[in-house]
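Budget justification aside, the reviewers requested a transparent look at the raw inputs and outputs of the sequence design task funded under Objective 1. We therefore reproduce one unedited record. The lines immediately below are the structure tokens for a 396-residue chain.
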């Protein structure tokens, strides 16, 4: 069993447990903030603006945090960066509790942008453990990347549910408070596992940024388009159905991706990475037509089945894309490279949400599902261009 062999590595279970604990709040914070702010101030517009500000701040700060991790080590940077982010979450909670001016909410939530990319740090550990270029290590790294993507899907599936439950069953600030405690505890456990931490490489101040690597800009554009698929899919589903039912259907989409990711990790990957990425994106483009067709039937059951199947293309695409990022990123910049990919995805989610919102309002709710199809097709086109460019470079 590939996963049993993967976690037989000394130290792997310990850093994975800490990382999962730290990653769960990533799906909790935005939902908790919206519930907390909207309930206290009576404005979803304010809640959305605050969370959007946090997303924009994260897109700016995260690559710099990742660069510091690469230069100074995971433990030395992740712990203080997490402590600052947790203080930002607690400051937001106190601003809500004591009815501080609205501008303080933006400042407090922007401080959470220093949260380190724990998923990227975990992938960097797997890459360090299986760094020797052997077929066995290549297979193990493929399985590890598949597991990490499935973990992402699981955390983003369970996080919003846990946040909503805590905020409604206890008190409005409970989701934010619990998320902050889980994040800090998880990062402390993760950072304590020094035996598996990648060593700091001898990277000179003038070393090349991952952005300057040939083909990286095009690959980040692929991630941007893929993120647009995710953002548009969520907004379109929320527009079709009410809150609880939409949450259930989005959970099915994430469940389909999680299952596909775990299954993908057990399959021996064939072909070169650019070709596999193009194949995964072709499958995603085809499967994203299912929600568009299902929405026109008016049946929630048919739409649920369509979203479950559409989710099956997500994890394999992300696993292959992240593997390609790992291969293209210069030595000593792995955390920065993967964080740039995550930042591109976040930017795509924001763009997809806006595009789907406009489409739903002006054309109808079911037509919002056309955005994921178009975005997936664009990602496929960009991946083919990148693959052709790489092949041409090899031949020249």
């Amino acid at each position: 069993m590939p996963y049993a062999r993967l976690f037989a590595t000394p130290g792997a279970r310990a850093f994975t447990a800490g990382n999962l604990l730290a990653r769960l709040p990533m799906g909790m914070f935005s939902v908790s903030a919206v519930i907390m702010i909207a309930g206290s101030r009576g404005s979803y517009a304010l809640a959305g603006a605050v969370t959007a500000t946090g997303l924009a701040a994260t897109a700016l700060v995260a690559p710099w945090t990742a660069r510091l991790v690469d230069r100074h080590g995971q433990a030395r940077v992740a712990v203080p960066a997490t402590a600052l982010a947790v203080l930002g979450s607690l400051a937001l909670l106190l601003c809500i509790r004591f009815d501080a001016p609205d501008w303080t909410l933006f400042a407090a939530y922007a401080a959470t942008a220093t949260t380190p990319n724990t998923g990227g740090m975990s992938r960097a550990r797997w890459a360090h453990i299986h760094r020797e270029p052997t077929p066995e290590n290549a297979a193990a790294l493929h399985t590890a990347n598949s597991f990490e993507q499935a973990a992402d899907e699981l955390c983003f599936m369970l996080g919003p549910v846990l946040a909503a439950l805590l905020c409604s069953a206890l008190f409005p600030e409970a989701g934010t408070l619990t998320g902050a405690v889980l994040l800090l505890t998880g990062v402390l456990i993760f950072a304590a596992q020094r035996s598996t931490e990648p060593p700091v490489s001898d990277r000179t101040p003038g070393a090349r940024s991952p952005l300057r690597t040939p083909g990286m800009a095009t690959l980040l554009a692929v991630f941007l388009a893929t993120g647009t698929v995710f953002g548009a899919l969520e907004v379109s589903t929320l527009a079709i159905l009410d809150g609880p039912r939409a949450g259930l259907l989005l959970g099915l989409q994430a469940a389909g991706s999680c299952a596909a990711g775990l299954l993908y990790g057990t399959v021996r990957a064939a072909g070169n990475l650019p070709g596999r990425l193009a194949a995964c994106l072709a499958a995603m483009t085809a499967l994203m037509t299912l929600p568009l067709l299902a929405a026109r039937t008016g049946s929630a059951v048919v739409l649920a089945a369509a979203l479950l199947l559409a989710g099956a293309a997500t994890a394999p695409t992300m696993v292959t894309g992240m593997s390609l990022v790992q291969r293209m990123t210069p030595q000593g910049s792995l955390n920065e490279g993967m964080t740039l990919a995550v930042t591109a995805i976040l930017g795509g989610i924001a763009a997809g949400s806006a595009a789907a919102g406009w489409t739903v309002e002006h054309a109808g709710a079911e037509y919002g599902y056309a955005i994921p199809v178009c975005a997936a097709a664009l990602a496929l086109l960009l991946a083919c261009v990148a693959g052709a460019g790489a092949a041409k470079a090899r031949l020249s």
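The chain has a mean pLDDT of 82. The CA atoms of residues 130 and 138 lie 7 Å apart. Computational costs for records of this kind are itemized in the attached budget.
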